[in-house]
Amino acid sequence: MSKILIMLNVNGRSHEIACEPNTLLLDCLRQDLGLTGSKRACDDSSCGACTVQIDGVPMLSCALLAVSCQGQRITTIEGVAEHGSLSALQKAYSDWGGSQCGYCTPGFMMTVNALLSETPDPTDEQIGAALSSNLCRCTGYVQMIQAIKAAIRAEQQGRAAKRA
Amino acid sequence: MSLPDFQVLRPRTNAEAVELLARHAGDIRIIAGGTDLVPSMRQKLFTPKFVLDIRAIAELNGIRESAAGLSIGAMTTLAAIERHPAIRKNYSVLREATITVASPVIRNMATLGGNICLDTRCLWYNQSLAWRKSCGFCIKKDGNLCHVAPGGTKCWAAFSADTPPALLCLGAQLEILSPQGVRIVPLQDLYSGAGEAPLKLASTDLLAAIHLPAASSGLHGAYKKLRIRGSIDYPLAGVAVTFRNGAGNPTANSIMKDVRVAITAVNPAPLLVREAAKQLEGKPFGEATAELAGELAGELAAKSARPLTTSALTPEYRKEMVRVLAKRALLSLA
Ligand SMILES: Cc1cc2nc3c(=O)[nH]c(=O)nc-3n(C[C@H](O)[C@H](O)[C@H](O)COP(=O)(O)OP(=O)(O)OC[C@H]3O[C@@H](n4cnc5c(N)ncnc54)[C@H](O)[C@@H]3O)c2cc1C
Ligand code: FES
Ligand code: FES
Fold it and tell me: Of A36, A155, B72, B272, which is most buried by a Cβ count within 10 Å?
């Protein structure tokens, strides 16, 4: 199949990519752009390991065609670090055992990051509902909930310290 | 698994989309949110030469209120539907069904049009090409046998979308565009009842919008679904119920009017259970009588359900759960 040229905006940078029209966004990110943070773990779009944000909204990059994402802002796990260091959420995941084998973690990060930008102080129910999009076979989710709450506390303390 | 080779066409207007569908009739497949089509193309269930991506058509997106009711563009995402205040307030059964579809992230992509046009599903069909080949191709795709009803000549793949039973209860009408012009079709007329070709939709048809009549605004309604996990899973059975009562307050002992009961995931099409509607019409409904109404609705809904071994859990259990879910739906409104 002959290749086509597409323009994608990923993590704030524009990329011109020659790819086949049937390329999934996930494969384009991993193979053409070398952004291997987004994972493939299932073959039927059910696990969430490939979750990225399109214009800030979490979506499955294994169910999106790369050509269809032109003109939109794509954010991957590589784009969530703050000024080159881990975000509060990433730090909390490592402190609280929210990540074990780590394969599902980038997908969870993209889902939870979107939850916290829309709802900075979510209820337990809202956290549970957000986590229900992604599968983890290691942690049992409880550690993730603890990590998310710790990240929220850290953010709140950070803001309070800035005000003081 | 990689996708089959195809070219992607990205029209900006409905007129352009209809023109492209006509030009490549038979060789083209519409992609909306892609959450059904992409996994299916990976399994080589569809191998179109052209894929028509309708995401960039602004006129297909959005929810408009008018005196006639509510008009929902086919590309409106399920996430937008679950957040819309008029749907929450006036068409609550649609919201209840919507929030059970797949997972929150999938609902950010999934569209209402795609949910209505969902392909039927079966354990022997939604599998990779290698899997299907090694077991023997079936009637639904590439072959002529049925693993579910051996010796049978019909396909029993189950229609497994959640919003259609709610939309059937609401009397939804579809606006369909084709080279011949616009036509309005009641939702129940979209479904053929045949597992192998579940939709009466030509390859040149574009579903543009879903209209909910003002007459269905404010109905009491509930949707109950059977699934193994609380998220991600398709329905193994689903029941929607709506009705109106004169008193305007379902807890007072009032009379049920405009009753509708619809089921999904247990037949090759979603169905209105007309007998339940008929027998419940005019029956009292309140705390004391809801149980009785629920029993009746459940019994008649289960009678219309013909589940086979197309999905997880036994057909007997799924049929029994149709009865239980109908009753639970009514009890939740008492
Ligand atoms: C893991 C997983 C779990 C799921 N669970 C559920 C569930 O619980 N309940 C449920 O109902 N669904 C479920 N789904 C299926 C799917 O996500 C939804 O049904 C969704 O609403 C489909 O919409 P879409 O826009 O993604 O459809 P697409 O995949 O884009 O399209 C689906 C079909 O409809 C056709 N189509 C789409 N739009 C139009 C149009 N405007 N005109 C004509 N034809 C059109 C396409 O050609 C295609 O054949 C699940 C999917 C996955 C991957
Ligand atoms: S890889 Fe599993 S949902 Fe995308
Ligand atoms: S940490 Fe291993 S799958 Fe989640």
Answer: B72
